[in-house]
Amino acid sequence: MQILTLFIKWIKEALFPLKCLVCAKEGNVLCRNHYHYEPASNIEIKTASALDECISVTNYHSISAKALIKSLKFNRHKPAAKLIAEGFNQTINWNAYKGATLVAVPLHWRRKHWRGFNQCEVIARHLKLPTNIKINLTAFKRVRFTGQQARLNKTERSKNLLNAFSWNQNHAVPHTVLLLDDVATTGNTLEAAAEALKSAGVKFVVGIVFARQLESN
User: Is the pLDDT of residue 110 over 80?
Assistant: First the structure.
């Protein structure tokens, strides 16, 4: 069975070799020239925020970061998820969050069905976490179908996410949650998700974001 799996993998690599998402050079998802991330600027936490911390790996204007996210999210190029996860692993000191539970920002089941997967869940599965950090991808749900945030202005985005998330009380409520998202623009999605987690009884919420998208307005 293992030989068959390796043979299929070899055939796929021969017929569809990996190419750099930026320059199309064969060999890997990102070539040596583009295998880097621009360090992210700090994300300020508002005084009244439900988020206790928020960490970003890079900025969305980074050509490599943007290529990885778009390729995974819209082209289902899942090898990109491994490099995104690697960015998290290199940036975040996981040992500082011993005993925490990691959750991905959820998609509503309808949107997940249309897309075929939740890109944040795919990234989460590639993280190299210490054994004292659990991953729970089933307890935190998006219970209300909402419009796409990218198509709304700042005010509409906040209203759009009202009561959109919920923690399944059949699962034990952790003290600390690491909340994973691929991109943060206004931060409204992370904020709404953190509020839902705090309402469920979570005491400390850390947003972890691959790319922060800076807005000029």
Answer: yes
Q: Are residues 26 and 41 in the same domain?
A: no
pLDDT (tens digit per residue) in 79-106? 889 989 999 999 999 999 999 999 999 9
Which structural domain range is residue 80 located in?
A: 37-212
- Digit-coded pLDDT (tens) for 18-74: 776 667 666 566 676 656 666 665 555 665 689 999 999 998 887 888 888 888 887
For residue 5, the one-letter residue type is: T
Residues 14 and 61 occupy one common structural domain: no
Rounded to 5, what percent of the chain is helix, strand, coil? 35, 20, 45
> What's the CA gap between 190 and 211, in Å, rounded?
13
Alpha helices in 116-149 (DSSP H): 119-125
Q: HSE (CB half, 13 Å, CA atoms) of 67?
A: 18
What pLDDT was estimated at residue 27? 57
- Contacts for 120 with CB less than 8 Å, ≥ 6 apart: 104, 105, 106, 180, 181, 182
The answer to whether residues 17 and 54 belong to one domain is no
